[in-house]
Amino acid sequence: MPYFNSGILDSITNADLSYYEINFILLEVLGRSLEDVRIKGISPQELEKVKPYIEAARRYPVEYIFRKAFFRNLVLYVDERVLIPRNETEHLVDIALRLIGERGLERILEVGTGSGAIAISIATEGDRPVFASDLSSGAIQVASMNVRSSGAADRVFLFVGDRLEAVGGKWDLIIWNHPYVLPEEYHSLPPKVKVEPEMALVSTLDTLIEFLKEAMEHLSDRGFVLLESSRPFIRRIMEDFPRARIERDIYGMERFVLIERR
Ligand SMILES: C[S@@+](CC[C@H](N)C(=O)[O-])C[C@H]1O[C@@H](n2cnc3c(N)ncnc32)[C@H](O)[C@@H]1O
To answer: Which of 12, 57, 134, 199 is deepest in the core (most CB within 10 A)?
Structure first.
């Protein structure tokens, strides 16, 4: 029988991990939530099972340890080939779905799909197919597993490509949660974030502006570009595209950028 021992519990909860991480580990290893463990206690045997994961999670993201990430209503496979989808990105999907519905947008392209989180969510929660690319062939392999496991193979079409290079025709919506850490900021990222692919994290202001100029050429007359971005990039976008509209994320930070073609 599990028994309550506050000393034992402290050794878990004082491990510099977030509530989310501890709960993630307990659910994966014991099938029990942190709340359940707090109420009913934990046995020494259970603690022995959990300990190595708690230790590993101090240095490594839980999502890579368990090869699993949650995004909206999806359970995705993730490994070191892809960025771990962030919860603030879930709001990007809301913005895209709203726009698709209000404006009747049809041709939808996601650049830099990574695990496929955004493309799969839009295609399965909405009623339009989504084309999605990534420069990393490893990322496209991961996205392809996720497309199949979420039953979206008839709605999400993946390909490897550099930005819009391999893309023909005009699009109603081009989305990119682009790498938005500047090269000079990279060294100050927490070690756990640096485990993620550098190409998913780091880019320059000029690279993004080049992309936006290309994207304008690939938009239909009613088209939009929708980005997830960060403060220095947003500042630069506003200089080059003053008509861009900004939306905040769930933490109140300026995060999403919408640029209409016309
Ligand atoms: C911030 S991650 C976003 C991943 C995923 N869409 C998400 O939201 O979780 C940026 C993605 O862009 C991809 N990427 C970086 N440079 C690229 C390029 N030049 N062309 C296409 N994709 C690129 C990276 O491989 C990475 O998957």
So the answer is: 134
